[in-house]
Amino acid sequence: MKKTIKDYDLRGKKVIIRVDFNVPIENGKITDDSRIVGALDTIRYAKEKGAKVILMSHLGRVKEEADKEKHSLKIVCERLIKLLKDDVIFVESTRGEILENAINNLKDKEILLMENTRFEDIDGNRESGNDEELGKYWASLGDIFINDAFGVSHRKCASVVGIASNLKNGIGFLIEKELNSFKILDKPKRPYTIILGGAKVSDKIGVIDTLIKVCDYMLIGGAMSNTFMSALGYNVGESLVDEDYIDYAKELIKEYKDKIILPIDSIIEGCELKEYNEINNSDKCLDIGSKTIEKFKSILSISNTIVWNGPLGYFEKEEYSFGTYEILNYLSDKNKVVILGGGDTASAALNLGFKDKFTHISTGGGASLELLEGKELVGIDIIEEV
Ligand code: ADP
Ligand code: MG
pTM for the whole thing? Predict the structure, then answer.
């Protein structure tokens, strides 16, 4: 078991908390603050215990000076102040005297947010490349390091792996919750069903290969299913297909024919409902159809544990979000373990109104996929064991 923030006496200590404030911003406005909300418990706990709280996060990609303005954490700081209903000191630099003085002047229970860690990427990719000196330097600013940035824990960056290598450390409440949720899958109550959708087979090979072995059923929808339908010999017209993975799909269907459940019909561009044997060369399959929804529901009705990665249609357009919505809705009031992972899957569930309806909606896109693949995440692996 990993050490957590609760394993330390925080009173009077400078506690660096690596959070994931990498929120989507459009036209200067935060469009979804759930990642900030997700970090509040750990921040509040550290404050209550009398720590001097130092927050670090990345935001977007920063490759040159010109990227800085758009990627400042200042706007995140404003939202954090509102959500915490507390003061937060914002420091506009990622190293140097101003930062060091601000940290040394912190009183117990005060909270400071440092500017975007990726500002250090401009000259040599130091943050994202886990530069040794940078990790050591940031570690020197604190007494204890807490990783609560689940969304970047699969990446080897200085602000996670670098600091943790140089300072006593633990995980925060958000990562603890993520790990506990995925741990349920080590011994799933059966039948154990995977719902797979999304854009490409090639993105998900690791997930498919790992989960197909341990699951009882795998329901395949989304653009992903076009490749499988094509492997079965159906014409999928102009639909998105991973041509290079048709043979892979054929093999998988052959080996796991009792587990893999494929669509019967589809909503094609223009919103017409067609069965797969009716699809023309010019058609584009953009959502699962009503017979498929019923088929999927019948498998889900007998399942006890469900893991879902990948939307079942082009959900960003309302007219093709129905399949994803229907399955979310169906699962939302059932007494089953339902875990959602993947960036777009989480945003589909949240945007379609299913915020607190499931066992767990992971806050990490790539990180949750790597956990599903059974991989160790470097940023969690590095944390001390109890
Ligand atoms: P996640 O981020 O949850 O792992 P992916 O990134 O694999 O999911 O896939 C999400 C994308 O797949 C979305 O942008 C969605 O519009 C797209 N998608 C799903 N089904 C289709 C489809 N039938 N045709 C085109 N795009 C699709
Ligand atoms: Mg995605």
Answer: 0.92
